[in-house]
Design goal:
Blueprint (H helix, E strand, L loop, with lengths): L1 E5 L8 H14 L4 E5 L5 H5 L11 H7 L8 E3 L4 E4 L8 H4 L9 H7 L7 E5 L6 H9 L2 E7 L4 H19 L7 E7 L4 H13 L4 E7 L2 H5 L7 H4 L4 H23 L1
Parallel strand pairs: 1-5, 1-6, 2-4, 2-5, 6-7, 7-8
Antiparallel strand pairs: 3-4
Length: 259
């Protein structure tokens, strides 16, 4: 079971779009996939065709209230993957979880009971480095950072890397950035090319060769509660996420066989 965490402390960089579309694309290759939404905005939940789960068990019940993760799983039957939903409650996770023992290990511990049930668990993180993202990072086997090739993107990446190193030295974990994904990519922009060159120079092994183009279909799909693959299967953005799934499979499944 590979736990793929999609994180970036910046909002609007394509985390949720990546989590939902990668879930659908990996499921299309017959992998068993669970998508876990740990953002209070619940965009991955609604983008996978479920209501914001106010009356259902959510990831918050697992993290803060001792619920069994298996009881929170909802099928997204049409799309071929399962979902652990989120809800607005998660906004108070930092406060509610202060009384939970080993608060930052709740997700990792919960995932143990799913070992063998899924090939991939994909976690969509909130745009912050609070207790929720910390839970995801500590549960991760692979960390994927979506980013836009913008002026401040490299700075954001450097501070994320520093935060990860701090976490590693405080907890004894060995969390590392496994993949950097360029999203909303516009090859015509000079800045895009400059940032790409920097990324290539400093993160040659992590930088995904797949890039996700800016594509209106990817932005429209969530309003119909569908991943791109089921909204417009031939759109450039959809095809790019299928290619990303191929890259993930060849990069990470090989690693996990060696490990
Ligand atoms: N490749 C893309 N092309 C066009 N729009 C995109 C693309 N990726 C994401 N978006 C849009 O950009 C916004 C932010 O993306 P989102 O995935 O929600 O980011 P995050 O989860 O990091 O906040 C959303 O409105 C989304 O639909
Ligand atoms: Mg999001």
């Amino acid at each position: 079971m590979i736990t793929l965490v999609v994180a970036n402390q910046k909002g609007g960089v394509g985390k949720t779009t990546t989590a939902v579309n990668l879930a659908a694309s990996l499921a299309a290759t017959k992998r068993k996939v669970l998508l876990i939404d740990i953002d209070s905005q619940a965009n991955a939940t609604t983008g996978s065709g479920h209501e914001k789960a106010e009356d259902k068990l959510t990831i918050m019940d697992v993290l803060a209230r001792g619920a069994c993760i298996k009881e929170t799983i909802l099928p997204c039957t049409d799309f071929g993957f399962d979902l652990v939903p989120s809800c607005q409650d998660l906004i108070s996770a930092d406060i509610e979880m202060t009384t939970v023992p080993a608060a930052s290990l709740q997700l990792k511990n919960a995932l143990r009971s799913l070992e063998g049930s899924y090939d991939y668990v994909i976690i969509d993180c909130p745009p912050s480095l609070g207790i929720l993202t910390l839970n995801a990072l500590r549960a991760s086997s692979k960390l994927i950072i979506p980013m836009q090739c913008e002026y401040y993107a490299m700075e954001g990446l450097v501070s994320l890397n520093k935060a990860i190193n701090d976490i590693n030295s405080k907890t004894g974990e060995n969390i590392q950035i496994s993949a950097i994904l360029r999203t909303m990519f516009d090859p015509r922009a000079r800045l895009t090319r400059e940032v790409s060159e920097e990324l290539q120079k400093y993160f040659p092994n992590e930088l995904c060769s797949t890039v996700i183009p800016r594509n209106i279909k990817l932005a429209e799909a969530p309003s119909s509660g569908k991943p791109g693959l089921f909204y417009d299967p031939t759109a450039k953005g959809t095809v790019a996420y299928l290619a990303l799934a191929g890259e993930v499979i060849s990069k990470f499944e090989k690693d996990s066989m060696v490990a």
